[in-house]
Amino acid sequence: MVSMKDISVACGVSVATVSKALNDHEDIGAETKRRIREVAKQMGYFPNSAAKALKTNRTQNLGVLFEDDDHSGLTHDYFACVLDSLKSAAEERGYDITFINSCRTRPNRMSYLEHCRYRGFDGVVIVCVNFRDPEVLELVNSDIPTVTIDHLFNNTCAIMSDNVKGMRDLLHYIYDMGHRRIAYIHGVESSVTQRRLASFYKTVAELGLDVPDEYIRQAAYRDTKGAYAETEKLLDLKKRPTCILYPDDFACYGGINAIRERGLRVPEDISVAGFDGIRIARHIEPKLTTLRQDTYQLGRKAAEKVISLIEQPKTTLIEQIVVEGEVYVGNSVAKI
Amino acid sequence: MVSMKDISVACGVSVATVSKALNDHEDIGAETKRRIREVAKQMGYFPNSAAKALKTNRTQNLGVLFEDDDHSGLTHDYFACVLDSLKSAAEERGYDITFINSCRTRPNRMSYLEHCRYRGFDGVVIVCVNFRDPEVLELVNSDIPTVTIDHLFNNTCAIMSDNVKGMRDLLHYIYDMGHRRIAYIHGVESSVTQRRLASFYKTVAELGLDVPDEYIRQAAYRDTKGAYAETEKLLDLKKRPTCILYPDDFACYGGINAIRERGLRVPEDISVAGFDGIRIARHIEPKLTTLRQDTYQLGRKAAEKVISLIEQPKTTLIEQIVVEGEVYVGNSVAKI
DNA sequence: GTGCACTTCTTAATCGTTTTCGTATTATCA
DNA sequence: TGATAATACGAAAACGATTAAGAAGTGCAC
Using one digit for the tens of pLDDT, what is the confidence trace for A215-267? Predict the structure, then answer.
């Protein structure tokens, strides 16, 4: 590794001068700057991030907390897409991304916050995690700039997919297709679920629909088995729904299986709608009608926000940024 | 941040003593060690990774190069699963994971190798990248311990999914189900494709099957449109295949769509098989018969290997580790 | 009592930067 | 001409750790 020392020798100046020249301080002569920079480039110089971090307390590195109870974080299409977008946006701005270690089994492990301090992350993005975890709270309440995705704390920035509008739009579409008996198998307890569920109730009320209690059921996210089972119960009702909403696209396929196994067709006999808009759902028959969340913007905004919190702490608002999704019209909801 | 200095003051010893106590050097008295450790824990001490890295030239951080031409790295189920497993295995051993910046558009950007030196990665894992990229070659040829996944260089360790055996097993299964006219839509040029294709030819020869040239077609990985188009051509043949192999599960659905649009059924009229074993393929009808690659082992072995290259450079062999997959029997291949 | 070996701890240099403060040189002006 | 200001650079400390080398203190043999 070529260091500033090497450059200073080559140029016959001090390391201080080299440092200042490369960082464009104004007390270095134009010609000297030029020469130093040229030599630096030619010698293939790049700074040592550890030394720089030690001195400046800045690492240009973001920590990403990305874990899931059922260990499906990275393998979860929605979150993977968000992360991918987050990564690109951060890299464009010169920040790298490191995972916050979530291994719980190591002896002498650090808490999330400790790990962040250890690595000196300039900021943190929290995705798809258990937001009631005390360690997450500790992190959120620390002085490290933090952005959460799809969860709202009162003292951090949050990037939220607009689940309220999303659910409303989806319901309106389904209503417009003629459906009046709409069932909703919602996800398990979480703020996202709450939002969607609240929006569901509000919207059906607005639309003047009658939704019997048996139409509201629950299955975990991405749980095809659970969705299958709940769908069966819905199909057993004397007054069947004409359309069923699922927690997410993945689970929706569990429901489709249940429907088809009874010899019913999707969407001719029963319509279904998902949530998320995972890629493959556009390539499999029936193409899922679903609320496609804007993962690109979610990831990008998260990166932008955390970086602005880092670089302009004063001027950056603690706010909630909402990203709208859109109804993707497949062919899983029939016109009736 | 509490530093060793703080602990040394609190304990009335020198920082050197603190450092050695915490690192369990043997020239520190047992009682002193105990006291120092207790105080350290109580004060909430954790080392500063930057300072440590600066001094030791070790970061306990792995770089992961994870990019794709079509920018589908993280959103690609197979690679996402590999990365997830890699991450877990690395974290269990105390290593963190940072993405090697692959943003090509930044002014003054670093090459992959430069970025690795800048961050001081102890080792690197290369996944799903363009292996002909000169920057990748530069990285591979450097002195940084490197492990590649699914690609073989002659001077690095490689973790390979056993595509040869995989293809053979899959073909044998299909053969055993009675199929004699088997078509293969293979992926585009890559070492993985070569291996699978070679294994395909070898196996059909062993089985004494006649495979007309029109049965061998090409479509990009994960390209449902391409797979759709090539499937149509196969269906147009006077002598249709009874079973079609696809580059991967995702593409397979493109083929299924083509088949169904002709009013044919899968698998009753035409059988299909995928490759990869992505999660959702087990939940959608027809459940794909596919070669399920062992992403858990691939990621895990990669982490173990690169860490052993780092920690025991002398004793670690430059080798090729092969991870076998298994035929996942769905119901997309009919018995005939 | 002296010498020697152990054990246990300290001193001080070092890693590659950044940054404050000081200094030498030149320019400006009364 | 001499004082002052502006410009361009350097010396040195500091960030938080590691580590080689050295220095006390203790115990033991003779």
Answer: 999 999 999 999 999 999 999 999 999 999 999 999 999 999 999 999 999 99
Report the nucleotide nearest the CA of residue A21, measured to C1'. D9
Tens of pLDDT, residue by residue over A18-73, are: 999 999 999 999 999 999 999 999 999 999 999 999 999 999 999 999 876 666 67
Range of the domain at B92: 61-161+297-324
* One-letter identity of residue A52: K
Whether A94 sits inside 8 A of B106 (CB atoms) is yes
Task: Please list the residues that pair with B326 across neighbouring strands.
Answer: B292
How high is the pLDDT of residue A72? 63
pLDDT at residue A70 in the model: 62
Measure, in angstroms, how far nucleotide D5 C1' is from residue A44 CA: 39
Decide: pTM greater than 0.85.
yes
Closest CA to A250 of A271, A286, A215, A281: A281
Q: How far is B60 from chain A (nearest CA, A)?
A: 10
Which residue's CA is nearest to the C1' of nucleotide D7? A27
B325 torsion bin: left (phi>0), alpha (psi -120 to 50), beta (else):
beta
Interatomic CA distance for residues A101 and A110, integer angstroms: 8
Query: Within this chain, do residues A285 and A174 fall inside the same structural domain, yes or no?
Result: yes
CATH number for the domain harbouring residue B90 = 3.40.50.2300
Contact A97 B98 (CB under 8 A): yes
Quote the number of domains for chain B: 3
